[in-house]
TrEMBL record:
Tree of life domain: Bacteria
CDD domains the record matches: GIY-YIG_unchar_3 (cd10448)
Domain GIY-YIG residues, every copy: 1-79
Coiled coil (UniProt feature): none
One protein family per Pfam: GIY-YIG
Homology family: Belongs to the UPF0213 family.
Descriptive protein name: GIY-YIG nuclease family protein
């Protein structure tokens, strides 16, 4: 089973959300369904555009990477996104 670390943003590209899941398609559907709950981060900031993801072979590695990215500065996260998706276009699965 694969695990995914992903980064979502809003249409203005002003907010970044980092998450981890074992089913990226399902998780994106959950985020996109009504843009999440208003009280939750992705719903409050309307983060529903997938701009980065990376596959990991197990949960331990994926969770460690998610924690690492969450501790990064905004600039470092932007650099990571720009390496694979310089136009910050929505990644379709």
């Amino acid at each position: 089973m694969s695990f995914y670390v992903y980064i979502l943003t809003n249409t203005a590209r002003t907010v970044l959300y980092t998450g981890v899941t074992n089913n990226l398609e399902r998780r994106l559907h959950e985020h996109n369904k009504g843009l999440g709950e208003a009280g939750k981060f992705t719903g409050r900031y309307q983060c529903n555009l997938l701009v980065y993801f990376k596959t990991h072979p197990n949960a331990t590695q994926a969770i460690a990477r998610e924690k690492q990215i969450k501790n990064w500065t905004r600039n470092k996260k932007e650099y990571l996104i720009n390496l694979l998706n310089p136009s910050w276009e929505q990644i379709d699965l």
